[in-house]
Design a protein that fits this description.
This protein is of the alpha/beta class. The chain has an 8-stranded mixed beta sheet, sandwiched between helices. It has a 4-stranded antiparallel beta sheet with strand order 2-1-4-5, with helices on one face. The protein has a two-stranded antiparallel ribbon with strand order 13-14. It is globular. It starts with 8 loop residues before the first strand and ends with a strand.
C-alpha cells in the first residue's frame, strides 16, 4: 500500500433511510471512511449495525423504494457514484467494483452453468467474444483454485460444494479486474476448514492482484488475520477506526472493547465464561441525537444522553466516537 497515495474509494457523510409502513428507519448515519489502493479494510459489528447496508448503498444495490440514499458522497477515484446515471452505475458494478455476497448457496443462478455466469460480466463490460470469455473464465476458475477449470465451466451450481460455490462467486467478482472488491461475510455459511481455505485464497489473490478489499464480518478473529485497518460500526455509524494491531492492543470505544471480550481465547479454554453484550442494537426511527450505545454501556454518563459523539483522533490513524475515555469521562 503506497504511502500518501490518493484513496481509491472515499466515502463522505453517507446517509441511507428505509421508508416503511411504520415510519422511517435510519440505517446508515453519516458514515465516512476511505480505502487506499491495495488495502484490506475490515468492517465489523453485530447484526443490524449497518455494515452490509452501507456497502450496498455505495453502488446502488438496495431496492428503491424502500431504500433512499439521502446524502453523502461516494468517490471512486474522484468520481461520485451517487451523482452518475443509473446506466453509468451499472457499468461500475462488476467492472470497477466487485461484490461477493454472503450466501454462496443462493447467490448463483441455478439454471445457468457456472461458465455462463462468469462469462456474463466479461462479455457485458469488456466486450469479449464468447471464445475469449470462455478462455478468461477458465483462467479465473484456475486462479481461485478450482481443478479441471475448463471442464467445470459446463457444470451447474448444484454440482459444486459450498466452498467451491464461494470460489465461483469470487471468480465472478474478479472477472473484470475491479479496483475495489467488497466481500459481505463471504465465509459465514461455510464450515471452519473451508472458511480457512477461502481466507487463504483472499490473501493470495490480494498479493497477486493488488486490489483494495472491504471485508464485512461479525468475526473479529477473521479480521485479525487479514485486515490492515478495522472500522467498527454500531447503529448505522462508525464508532471506531484504527490499524488492526492498534485496535486489538488499544481499543477505545466501550463497544469495541465488549466485542473483543466475546472472542474465544486461551482464557476460555481454561474454563472462563465468554462475555456477551447485553441488549440489542436500537432500531432508529430518526438520526441519533444521543449516543446510540448508551443503554448498553457501563461507562455512560449524562453527556451521552444529550449529545451523539463525533469521531475524534486518539492516535495515528485511530479515531473514536465516544465521550468517555479510559482515563475518565470527559466533562
Amino acid at each position: 500500500m503506497p504511502d500518501g497515495a490518493a484513496p481509491v474509494l472515499d466515502v463522505r457523510g453517507l446517509k441511507t433511510v428505509f421508508r416503511t409502513r411504520g415510519g422511517e428507519v435510519h440505517a446508515v448515519n453519516s458514515v465516512s471512511f476511505h480505502l487506499q489502493p491495495g488495502e484490506l479494510l475490515g468492517v465489523v459489528g453485530e447484526s443490524g449495525s449497518g455494515k452490509s447496508v452501507t456497502m450496498m448503498s455505495l453502488i446502488g444495490l438496495l431496492p428503491s423504494p424502500p431504500a433512499d440514499v439521502r446524502d453523502g458522497q461516494v468517490l471512486l477515484e474522484g468520481r461520485d457514484l451517487l451523482r452518475i446515471t443509473p446506466e453509468a452505475l451499472r457499468s461500475v458494478r462488476g467492472a470497477e467494483v466487485g461484490f461477493v455476497f454472503q450466501d454462496p448457496m443462493t447467490s448463483l443462478n441455478p439454471v445457468f452453468t457456472v461458465g455462463d455466469q462468469i462469462m456474463e460480466p466479461l462479455r457485458t463490460h469488456l466486450g469479449m467474444t464468447r471464445a475469449q470469455a470462455e478462455t478468461r473464465a477458465a483462467e479465473l476458475l484456475d486462479l481461485v483454485g478450482i481443478p479441471d477449470a475448463r471442464k467445470r465451466l459446463k457444470s451447474y451450481p448444484h454440482q459444486f460444494s459450498g466452498g467451491m460455490r464461494q470460489r465461483v462467486m469470487i471468480a465472478i467478482a474478479l472477472a473484470c479486474d475491479p479496483k475495489v472488491l467488497i466481500a459481505d461475510e463471504p465465509t459465514t455459511a461455510l464450515d471452519v476448514t473451508i472458511q480457512a481455505q477461502i481466507l487463504e485464497l483472499v490473501r493470495d489473490l490480494r498479493s497477486k492482484l493488488g486490489m483494495a478489499i472491504v471485508w464485512i464480518t461479525h468475526d473479529l478473529g477473521v479480521i485479525a488475520g487479514i485486515a490492515d485497518r478495522v472500522m467498527v460500526m454500531y447503529a448505522g455509524q462508525v464508532v471506531e477506526q484504527a490499524p488492526v494491531k492498534e485496535l486489538f492492543a488499544n481499543p477505545r470505544h466501550p463497544y469495541t472493547r465488549a466485542l473483543l471480550k466475546t472472542i474465544p481465547s486461551n482464557a476460555g479454554a481454561r474454563g472462563d465464561r465468554l462475555q456477551v453484550i447485553q441488549g440489542q442494537p436500537p432500531i432508529l426511527g430518526a438520526a441519533p441525537t444521543a449516543c446510540p450505545f448508551r443503554a448498553r454501556c457501563r461507562h455512560a454518563f449524562d453527556r451521552c444522553a444529550r449529545e451523539n459523539p463525533a469521531r475524534r483522533p486518539v492516535g495515528r490513524g485511530h479515531d473514536v466516537a465516544c465521550h468517555w475515555t479510559p482515563e475518565g469521562a470527559d466533562a
